[in-house]
Amino acid sequence: MTVTAEPAVGKEAPPGATAPAPRRRTGRVRRIALPYLLLLPALLLELLVHLVPMVIGIVMSFKELTQFYIRDWGAAPWAGFDNYSLSVDFDAPIGKALLHSFFVTCAFTVLSVGLCWLLGTTAAVYMQENFRGRGFLRAVFLVPYALPVYAAVITWAFMFQRDNGLVNHVLHDQLGLTDSPSFWLIGDNSFVALLVVSVWKGWPFAFLIVMAGLQNIPKELYEAASIDGAGMIQQLRRITLPSLRPVNQVLVLVLFLWTFNDFNTPYVLFGKAAPEAADLISIHIYQSSFVTWNFGTGSAMSVLLLLFLLVVTGVYLVLTSRGRRAADA
């Protein structure tokens, strides 16, 4: 008589046995879905903080939204492209003021980004040498970047005061470089004051990024160059700058976007009404929206600024990618 043994219920499968197919599929789905679940809070915040307000701003740019419709802005009349036409009509006062603000912002951005990159790169290159106190100097250089923007700019606003500011005290009272104390927060000097503050708080970021990029350059390249008789300038041209090209491409783009869109610095330094010489486009759009209460025109200016930045960023990325491919070829 043959007895057939039935498998014991609940007994574990022997080692090396293949797991059931449904369990394998469930584990695979979990592995695929886990990154998206982790990104979900950031995506929701991005949607609520950036995308939804951006869509609302685009809709507002097509409406004749003034102070009379603040309570119910949805009831504002539809303006079509009138706000855009008004903004780019450079013969009219609004368009002429916007064009002037655009040129001021371009000049300010080019000077600020160039000086930040130059100071940051110079300091980072010199900080690669071993000398006593190097760590302390690195920490000191990063202080402007670590300070809160409002605290730093308010401090500079006090230093630029005409009668009791530190800048005039040094330039006029101590060094005698000026005939009389200068006005730094009004008039043409306001552009210089804004540029000084922007560079002061921006160059440590360039210093930090370039210093990190220098760590990836093999020291053997410099040693070989020294043996071949290359000086410091030749090493900088032939080794340092070419090796830092990918880092500098990202750094310049980030500095450009931050500087062109900078609102905190001119607002804290000058208040709601920036001088004509320092009328950046960010503060100009703020004045058009919240000072004159013409939100439709201000929204149209914001959309035009967004389109300009997208075009410039796209062209920059295309040119840098072509340059990178040409260098690798």
From TrEMBL:
Chief localisation class: membrane
CDD domains in the record: TM_PBP2
Q: Give TM segment ranges.
A: 33-62, 102-127, 139-159, 191-214, 242-260, 299-319
ABC transmembrane type-1 domain: which residues?
102-316
**Database matches in InterPro entries:** ABC_transporter_permease, MetI-like, MetI-like_sf
Q: Does the keyword Oxidoreductase apply?
A: no
Q: Which keywords appear in this protein's UniProt record, sorted alphabetically? A: Cell membrane, Membrane, Transmembrane, Transmembrane helix, Transport
Compartmental location: Cell membrane
User: Which residues lie within the region annotated Disordered?
Assistant: 1-24
Q: Fetch the PANTHER family from UniProt.
A: ABC TRANSPORTER PERMEASE PROTEIN, INNER MEMBRANE ABC TRANSPORTER PERMEASE PROTEIN YCJO
What protein does this entry describe? Sugar ABC transporter permease
Q: Which organism is it from?
A: Streptomyces tauricus
Taxonomy of origin reads: Bacteria, Bacillati, Actinomycetota, Actinomycetes, Kitasatosporales
